[in-house]
Amino acid sequence: MARLPYRKGIDSFDFSFQPSVDKKQIKGLLTLRFLSEGVNVVLLGPPGVGKTHLAVAIGMAACQGGYSSYFTTASDLVAALVKSHSTGKFDARMRAFTRPSLLIIDEVGYLPLDKQASNLLFQLVSRRYEQGSSVILTSNRSYGEWGSMFSDAVIASAVLDRLLHRSVTINIRGDSYRLKDKRRAGVIAQVRPEALAVADTS
Ligand code: ADP
Ligand code: MG
């Protein structure tokens, strides 16, 4: 029901490959205390560093712990909200995203959000904030870049304000796991993260 894109637990995450990820911090999140405290988790970093994998692993733990969870990409979420708005099903759709104890929004920042999309996302984040339920969010954009991702800076700061009030940010710096074998084979000498940010849409 959580619509996780795949099943990968924390056991298959190689912490030694990604030293910027604090294993203790992740284990702490897997206790699920953050859910009862309404804390949000924001995973930031370039493509391929394990943001989605970690979000899925925490999502799996939440499901196993009996918490209702729902996984979506930012673009699917925004498309669903925009569509429901024009077909009169907005309230029902909004409820579907507000009700789960844990909402995972993957890949925030790959697509710019227009005014309506920004507003709808703001409403969702506000509602979850007010009811004290957690969001896990992944993004390849640093907070400083969020202003340009939203249609206007006022909405961006209003979203960030609510999102970050009770939150944990995990900044992952490092190499893409997807490219590790290619890099080892010498196919890729060095990849600039900026180049990947544009190329990677998976
Ligand atoms: P991101 O969401 O940051 O772009 P993903 O989580 O999708 O990256 O990771 C890309 C692929 O590499 C996935 O198949 C994921 O399971 C794997 N992966 C990433 N980091 C690790 C890691 N440290 N250990 C094991 N697998 C990893
Ligand atoms: Mg991802």
Question: Mind explaining what this structure looks like?
Answer:
The protein has 202 residues and is an alpha/beta fold. The protein has a single domain (19-196), classed as P-loop containing nucleotide triphosphate hydrolases (Rossmann fold, 3-Layer(aba) Sandwich). It is 47% helix and 14% strand. It is built from 10 helices and 5 strands; from the N terminus they run H-H-E-H-E-H-H-E-H-E-H-H-E-H-H. It has a 5-stranded parallel beta sheet with strand order 2-3-4-1-5, sandwiched between helices. Bound molecules: adenosine-5'-diphosphate and magnesium ion (MG). The site of magnesium ion has 5 residues, from helix 3 and strand 3.
Widest sheet, order of strands? 2-3-4-1-5
Please count the helical segments.
Answer: 10
Order of helices and strands: HHEHEHHEHEHHEHH
Looking at the overall shape, the CATH architecture is 3-Layer(aba) Sandwich
The overall strand count is 5
Strand content: 5-15%
Helix content: 40-55%
Rounded average pLDDT:
91
* Overall geometric form: globular
The CATH class turns out to be Alpha Beta
Distance between the termini: 22 Å
Q: Provide the structure class.
A: alpha/beta
CATH superfamily: P-loop containing nucleotide triphosphate hydrolases
